[in-house]
Design a protein that fits this description.
Blueprint lengths: L1 H56 L13 H56 L25 E2 L4 H14 L28 E3 L9 E3 L16 H12 L1
Antiparallel strand pairs: 1-2, 2-3
Helix pairs in contact: 1-2
């Protein structure tokens, strides 16, 4: 496409000079035509007066079929027609020249639009998929299912949840907020205040305000052994023990 732009730009830069030459030639032809038409009008007027005087004097038979202009006058008229035709031809050439550049520009804009459309389609096709919501939760009522057996969980489909966990960990290894599409009716959890995804762990404090946490957000890689408390609840327990 860049080659087409360079070639089109080079042709476009030469266009004004070409048009200027054609217009200059048309002006010269127009001056010549005006001069020939003036001379022909004078010649014809003179010949008409001569014919009138000849008819009056009886030297010319008043038969209109035999009266005609001289060959010189007829040649001037034919020459005027040729010049006019040449002017028209130059005007058509100038028009076609401009029109061809407009068509080239239209072609470039069409190709450019098609390339942009293909690029958008390719970007959409190769863009990473959003992390799916693989876990099924009914909200805060799941706190009653705590315990070592039910404290960690995956989504309903193991393969989907595993893929989700890998994608979530790779995209958010430090536990920062993820740009996930959130259903306004879907409850949010964890320190990141996002919906459930991947593998999660429940805090063993029954009064925990958050309850469920993503492994990556609390720096967990494996299922914790024994009781596990989230950072806020762990800090609260330590303050109580220190009293």
């Amino acid at each position: 496409m860049s080659f087409f732009i360079d070639e089109f730009q080079a042709d476009l830069e030469a266009l004004p000079n070409i048009l200027q030459k054609k217009y200059a030639l048309m002006r010269d032809l127009d001056k010549s035509l005006q001069e020939i038409v003036r001379q022909n009008e004078q010649r014809c007027d003179q010949e008409i007066e001569d014919i009138k005087r000849g008819v009056t004097a009886g030297n010319i038979t008043p038969d209109t079929s035999l009266i005609r202009f001289s060959d010189e006058a007829l040649d001037e008229q034919k020459h005027s027609i040729r010049i006019a035709d040449e002017k028209v031809a130059l005007a058509i050439q100038a028009y076609d020249l401009v029109d061809s550049h407009i068509q080239q520009l239209d072609q470039y804009l069409k190709k450019s639009g098609e390339e942009l459309r293909r690029e958008r389609e390719n970007m959409a096709a190769t863009a990473p998929s959003q992390i799916p919501d693989g876990t099924t939760k009914s909200g805060k009522s799941e706190s009653g299912r705590r315990g070592r057996k039910n404290r960690t969980r995956l989504g309903t489909a193991a393969a989907s949840a595993a893929a989700t966990e890998v994608a979530a960990t790779a995209a958010n290894p430090t536990g920062m907020e993820l740009d996930l599409p959130v259903d306004p009716n879907e409850p949010t959890y964890c320190l990141c205040n996002q919906v459930s995804y991947g593998e999660m762990v429940a805090c063993d404090n029954p009064d925990c305000k958050i309850e469920w946490f993503h492994f990556g957000c609390v720096d967990l890689k494996d299922q914790p052994k024994g009781k596990w408390y989230c950072p806020d609840c762990a800090a609260l327990r330590n303050r109580r023990k220190g009293r």
